[in-house]
């Protein structure tokens, strides 16, 4: 019976993943036939990657549906019954930190940023910054939900601050910060943290409503954006202290992600 329950609805999950990947594969095929003309070895690698992506995403989403969503609701329900709403603050912080650190999309972005910045922005530093920011603001959001207060009291001022800070932060960090907000709301983070928030809201007087518990996804994106924007100020402060004499600042300061020109590498495709 446990095996049957573990694969309940797995066919629907596989169909959803297939509907996502088939158009990507078809688009690559069209470009390969008419424009790219890539080597067969590379095409075989792409096909193998698509197959493994299909298998991995199907199993991942099935695990989320049968484990993380029910677990989040059950844990949120227990937290919502506590007599002291402030107890959700440390629990929400720890859970938010761990979930974002495990979020695959956040790890992918952090790795790509480290490559694009030639190692100036370390993957571990960016990932921990995103996780700390999300954990802090989400725990505060859980406290608001437990007290029956709308999350708009945090979201609206938060986005005003995030947009205002764009005037002073490094242009590269401006793009990274909003991208980090998007990837922080990945499938693992959203399903677990939102389910936990809805579980807390369900235990409040009057039961769950359309305005209680929702808004956490927006809050997660805002938290990651603000945290990375703060990291930009830290980098600028360190850059001002170092003040290298060979740095060209005629254009107002070079971007932290500006790297030296490198010839394009073709070995990864042709091999």
How would you characterize the overall build of this protein?
It is a single chain. The chain has helices at 2-6, 10-36, 40-80, 88-101, 104-116, 123-146, 152-165, 171-184, 187-202, 216-242, 267-270. Helices cover 73% and strands 0% of the residues. It has 271 residues and is mainly alpha-helical. Helix 4 (88-101) runs antiparallel to helix 6, helix 5 packs antiparallel against helix 6 and helix 6 (123-146) packs parallel to helix 9 (187-202). It is built from 11 helices and no strands. The chain is flat, with a radius of gyration of 22 Å. It has a domain at 65-240. The longest helix has 41 residues, at 40-80.
Number of strands: 0
Order of helices and strands: HHHHHHHHHHH
Rg, nearest Å: 22 Å
How much helical structure, as a percent, in the residues? Answer: over 70%
DSSP helix count? 11
Q: What is the multimeric organization of the chains shown? A: single chain
Mean pLDDT: 85
Shape designation: flat
Low-confidence stretches: 245-253
User: Approximately how much beta-strand content do the residues carry?
Assistant: under 5%
Task: Tell me the major beta sheet.
Answer: none
Helix-strand makeup class: mainly alpha
Please outline the helices and strands.
Blueprint (H helix, E strand, L loop, with lengths): L1 H5 L3 H27 L3 H41 L7 H14 L2 H13 L6 H24 L5 H14 L5 H14 L2 H16 L13 H27 L24 H4 L1
In brief, what are we looking at here?
The chain is mainly α and 271 residues long.
Quick tags:
271 residues, mainly alpha, 73% helix
């Amino acid at each position: 019976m446990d095996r049957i329950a573990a694969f309940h609805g797995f066919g629907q999950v596989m169909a959803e993943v297939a509907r996502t990947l088939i158009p990507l594969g078809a688009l690559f095929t069209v470009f390969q036939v008419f424009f790219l003309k890539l080597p067969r070895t590379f095409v075989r690698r792409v096909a193998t990657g698509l197959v493994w992506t299909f298998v991995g995403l199907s199993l991942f989403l099935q695990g989320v549906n049968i484990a993380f969503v029910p677990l989040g609701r059950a844990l949120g329900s227990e937290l919502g019954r506590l007599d002291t709403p402030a107890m959700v603050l440390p629990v929400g912080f720890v859970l938010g930190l761990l979930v974002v650190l495990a979020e695959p999309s956040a790890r992918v972005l952090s790795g790509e940023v480290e490559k694009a910045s030639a190692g100036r922005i370390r993957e571990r530093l960016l990932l921990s910054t995103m996780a700390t920011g999300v954990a802090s603001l989400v725990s505060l959001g859980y406290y608001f939900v437990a007290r029956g207060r709308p999350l708009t009291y945090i979201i609206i001022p938060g986005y005003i601050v995030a947009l205002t800070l764009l005037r002073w932060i490094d242009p590269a960090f401006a793009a990274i910060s909003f991208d980090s907000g998007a990837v922080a709301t990945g499938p693992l983070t959203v399903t677990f943290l939102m389910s936990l928030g809805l579980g807390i809201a369900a235990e409040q007087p009057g039961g769950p409503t359309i305005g209680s518990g929702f808004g956490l996804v927006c809050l997660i994106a805002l938290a990651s954006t603000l945290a990375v924007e703060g990291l930009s100020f830290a980098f600028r402060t360190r850059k001002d202290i170092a003040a290298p004499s060979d740095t060209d600042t005629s254009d107002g300061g070079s971007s932290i992600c500006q790297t030296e020109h490198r010839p394009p590498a073709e070995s990864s495709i042709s091999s």
